[in-house]
Amino acid sequence: MQWTLVIPLKPLARAKSRLSDTAADGVRPGLALAFAQDTVAAALACPAVAGVAVVTDDELAGRELAALGARIVPDAPADGLNAALTHGAAAVRAIRPGAPVAALNADLPALRPCELARVLDAAAEFPRSFLADAAGIGTTLLAAGPEQELQPMFGLESRLHHRASGAAELTLSDVDSVRQDVDTGDDLRAALALGVGPYTATVSARLLSAP
To answer: What pairs with residue 132 in β-bridges?
Structure first.
């Protein structure tokens, strides 16, 4: 099954505020963009992925991610993460009616195409399914098979909300790169330990070498 991924990205100036203990205000937008670039590049290299649609109104991010091969969908609802994902899924299916779609976080800088393929192959067994994040509280991927509505419920305790919505929880081992999103300094260190992509590696090296 070939999936189209929908990746939401808020304006970079407002992104990753919880990284303030690790990165200064002027650095966080560049980190957020690097996370998204590594996420999109890895997703497009996954054999189970037909394409990536990024929902964003950030002009710089739009240009950079389009250059990697992503389709940019303006965030027309401008009403938060779940509205953006619903809008992105609808934009995908306007071109590919009934196509399987999956929402993927934009902050997975250690993402490995082979691990993402394992998750998507497992998701193909269910009408709707999700993968919990490394903390076991949130969600990094929500999948909806052909003709199924995405029904995103991201936010606080989204793991519980997605499970309560009827989505099957994917309980795979050895897919740490798909679970490790980055919200805090500890998350970034965990992602670096897994091995991040080249964009995040470059920005993080400057960050870690700064006085």
So the answer is: 139
